[in-house]
Specification:
single chain, Arc Repressor Mutant, subunit A, D-Maltodextrin-Binding Protein, domain 2, 3 domains, eight-stranded mixed β-sheet, 9 helices
C-alpha cells in the first residue's frame, strides 16, 4: 500500500474536495483520483461515492472505517521515523513535569551522571498530562510522570518509582502552624492557593474534596510553585502540594493529612509498549528502577 495514497486519502477525507487536496500536495487532480482508485482496487471495496451533479463526494461505510486505519498507519509511520532518527543520534529524549524536574530529578541526576547517562539525555518539560500525550505520539522516548493512580494503558509500559504524600502547606504565622497533622474537613473555610490544571494536584484536591464533602475556596491559581510558597509564607492563604515540593528548609510549614485513604503522588517511568528499547534506553530503565529499589529497601 502506497504511503502517498494514504496521505492523499486522509486529506481528501478532511477536505471533501479533490482540487483542495491536489493543491495542498502540489500534484494534479487526476493523480489524487488515481490514488483513490488504487486503494479501492487493493481493498476490493468502494470508498467514495462521487456526486458529479453537485461536485461533492461522500464516503461509504467502508470509506469511513478505512480513514481510521489510514490515520493510525500514518501515525505509526511517523513514530517509526522518529524512533529511527533517535537511534542514529544515540540520545534518549525524556519528559519531565516541573515538580519532578525541580525536586525529584536532581536527587537522581548524580547517579545518572556516574552511569554516563546524563550527557545522553534530551529533557523536555511540560505537565504530566501533556507529556503523556506526547509520549503516545512518539514525540519523546520516555517520561517521568506524576499521577494519582497507577498508569494503566495498553499502549504504555510503566515502572512505579516512588509514592509521595500530599501535604497541607501553611505559613509559620498561621494558627495551624504548631500542628503536626490536620483533617481536610477542618479546612473548609481556609482560602487555598493552588496549582493550575496543568498539574496533577487539582485532580487530587478535587477527589479529596468530594470524598470528605468539603469544598474550601480557591482564591488563586498559578503554574509557579515558588509563587505559591511565597504567598503562603505571607499568610495570604494555604496550599496543597506533594511533599517532594516542600523540603525541610522551605519558608512554610508542611502538615500531614489525617484523612484515611488520601490520594498519593505517584512517580512513574513510562514508555510506549510497542517501542523496542535501545541499549542506552534499557540502561536508563535499569538504573532508575534499581535505584528506587535501593531507596525503598526492596
Amino acid at each position: 500500500m502506497n504511503i502517498k495514497d494514504l496521505q492523499y486519502y486522509k486529506k481528501l477525507y478532511q477536505e471533501k474536495r479533490y482540487t483542495k487536496v491536489a493543491n495542498f500536495f502540489h500534484v494534479s487532480q487526476p493523480a489524487i483520483t488515481a490514488a483513490i482508485q488504487r486503494l479501492e482496487k487493493e481493498l476490493g471495496t468502494q470508498l467514495i461515492i462521487r456526486d458529479q451533479s453537485h461536485h461533492e463526494i461522500r464516503f461509504t461505510e467502508s470509506g469511513r472505517q478505512f480513514e481510521r486505519h489510514a490515520t493510525q498507519m500514518l501515525k505509526e509511520l511517523d513514530i517509526a521515523r522518529k524512533e529511527i532518527q533517535a537511534l542514529k543520534m544515540e540520545k534518549v529524549s525524556i519528559g519531565l513535569p516541573p515538580i519532578i524536574g525541580n525536586y525529584y530529578f536532581p536527587a537522581i541526576s548524580s547517579m545518572l551522571a556516574k552511569e554516563n547517562l546524563l550527557q545522553n539525555m534530551n529533557v523536555y518539560e511540560d505537565g504530566s498530562q501533556s507529556l503523556f500525550h506526547k509520549l503516545l505520539t512518539g514525540k519523546m522516548d520516555m517520561a517521568l510522570l506524576g499521577a494519582i493512580h497507577p498508569i494503566e494503558d495498553e499502549h504504555v509500559t510503566s515502572h512505579l518509582l516512588a509514592r509521595k504524600k500530599f501535604k497541607i502547606i501553611v505559613s509559620p504565622q498561621h494558627s495551624l502552624a504548631t500542628r503536626k497533622s490536620v483533617a481536610f474537613q477542618e479546612l473548609k473555610d481556609e482560602p487555598f492557593i493552588q496549582l493550575s490544571d496543568h498539574f496533577i494536584h487539582p485532580l487530587a484536591f478535587e477527589g479529596l474534596s468530594k470524598k470528605t464533602r468539603t469544598h474550601p475556596p480557591v482564591i488563586y491559581r498559578t503554574n509557579d510553585i515558588q509563587i505559591i510558597k511565597g504567598m503562603v509564607a505571607e499568610n495570604i492563604g494555604i496550599s496543597f502540594l506533594t511533599e517532594i515540593a516542600v523540603p525541610e528548609y522551605a519558608p512554610v510549614i508542611a502538615l500531614s493529612l489525617a484523612d484515611p485513604g488520601q490520594p498519593e503522588f505517584l512517580i512513574s517511568l513510562a514508555y510506549r509498549s510497542n517501542h523496542i528499547l535501545t541499549p542506552l534506553q534499557q540502561k536508563l530503565v535499569d538504573v532508575l528502577t534499581k535505584q528506587e529499589q535501593r531507596i525503598n529497601g526492596s
